[in-house]
């Protein structure tokens, strides 16, 4: 195999660049340079499996060999996927199995340099020499603009049916839908149909603060996907994926302009962490 190196300087912090690389909708935007509609399924933890897929469920079965947040991501590609199923090794896949794809971020004076090294067999050299610079320019544009979406996720060791029910049924929602122990969700209503609304009451336990989180469903695919619009107009997408008998639950949401992106990411992730704790108990 032959190793290629690409790099680009981006006028953004390494934290912003990191999320521009790996937050779900950002990732799909910059890898569209290789194949329109490309996406990945993973919990993105070090040591985990990751599927790199096209719209037909074909692609590569890989592993996350290293995930050092804001510094390094290393993938090791193992084999092929067809219709979301890992394929037996062939002479063709043996030629590139074990190939690595590495992303290193280094920040200096507010400029982050992204360096990518990839192992390739000769037949793909010209293709990636042409497309990778395009992909990195897309990444640069994402990182240097305002944050459009934020991704949070969790992995659950229960059935998809149980995850779906506990995420959508009001009698379960009231038990996990809060970001910290000094808050709770005393009331939940959920009409799970396109065009219908949900209302979740969020309140501090001391009774001093309370508000209703209200949204309208735009898409409902049972046990697969939810898309809704919050009352202030922001869009949220919830995805339910299965990998190795685990459910990967992913939320993508548009940030508001009052609180920092970091604080919003932390808050939504905390709620998902509560959901995992409740669901796995």
Tell me, rounded to a whole number, the average pLDDT.
Answer: 96
CATH class identity of the largest domain: Alpha Beta
In the CATH hierarchy, what is the superfamily of the largest domain?
START domain
Largest sheet: 8 strands, antiparallel
Number of domains: 2
Distance between the termini: 47 Å
Low-confidence stretches: none
Proportion in helices: 25-40%
Might you state the CATH topology name of the largest domain? Alpha-D-Glucose-1,6-Bisphosphate, Chain A, domain 4
What Rg, in angstroms, do the CA atoms define?
20 Å
The total strand number stands at: 15
**So what's the overall shape?**
globular
- Please tell me the CATH architecture of the largest domain by its name: 2-Layer Sandwich
Q: Structural class of the secondary structure composition?
A: alpha+beta
- Roughly what fraction of the amino acids lie in strands? 35-45%
Count of alpha/pi helices: 7
């Amino acid at each position: 195999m032959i190793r290629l190196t690409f790099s680009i300087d981006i006028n953004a912090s390494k934290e912003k660049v990191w999320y521009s690389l790996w937050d779900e909708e950002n990732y799909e935007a910059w890898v569209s340079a290789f194949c329109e509609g490309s996406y990945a399924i993973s919990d993105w933890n070090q040591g985990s499996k990751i599927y790199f897929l096209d719209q037909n469920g074909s692609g590569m079965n890989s592993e996350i060999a290293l995930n050092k947040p804001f510094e390094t991501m290393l993938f090791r590609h193992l084999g092929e996927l067809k219709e979301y199923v890992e394929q037996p090794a062939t002479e063709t896949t043996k030629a590139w199995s074990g190939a690595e794809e590495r992303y290193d971020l280094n920040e200096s004076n507010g400029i982050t340099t992204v360096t990518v090294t990839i192992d390739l067999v000769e037949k793909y050299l010209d293709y990636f020499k042409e497309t990778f610079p395009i992909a990195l320019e897309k990444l640069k544009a994402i990182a240097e603009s305002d944050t459009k979406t934020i991704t949070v996720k969790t992995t659950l060791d229960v059935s998809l049916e149980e995850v779906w029910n506990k995420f959508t049924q009001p009698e379960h929602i009231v038990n996990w839908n809060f970001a910290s122990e000094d808050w709770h969700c005393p009331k939940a209503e959920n009409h799970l149909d396109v065009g219908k609304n949900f209302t979740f009451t969020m309140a501090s336990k001391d009774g001093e603060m309370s508000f209703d989180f209200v949204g309208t469903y735009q898409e409902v695919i049972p046990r697969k996907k939810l898309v809704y619009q919050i009352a202030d107009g922001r869009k949220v997408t919830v995805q339910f994926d299965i990998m190795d008998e685990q459910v990967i639950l992913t939320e993508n949401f548009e940030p508001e302009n009052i609180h920092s992106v970091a604080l919003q990411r932390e808050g939504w992730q905390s709620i998902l962490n509560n959901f995992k704790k409740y669901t796995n108990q």
